[in-house]
Amino acid sequence: MCFMPDGSQTRRTLRAVSKKKDSDQEFFQMTYLALLLPHPQKNKLIELQGNTYCDALYKQVMATFKPFYEWNDWIRTQMDQTLADYKKRRGLRLLSLGKYGAKKLFKKLTSLDSFDKLIK
Length: 120
What we know:
Blueprint: H1 7-14, H2 23-36, H3 42-49, H4 53-63, H5 71-119
């Protein structure tokens, strides 16, 4: 006599149990996308935020216990804050590059002045 496993048992072991999606997280993601897509700087936001940003924002909003009807305004302020932080970092970076370039140019000019004095 041959042992045959129960068909339902086999299907359960072969198939991975799918996780039920969190409805709050799904609503949050849809709200995030609804705000991101018409945004005038959506390409810059996508570039700055990366793939895991929406999940990180969801964890933040759940930690602050904000009700779902306030998520729209909260997400919008987070997007604006991301852009403001980027502009600030870019300005500081350009300023530091400008200072570095000025120092380098000053060194060149002072070395040229000393070279001109040697020639005369």
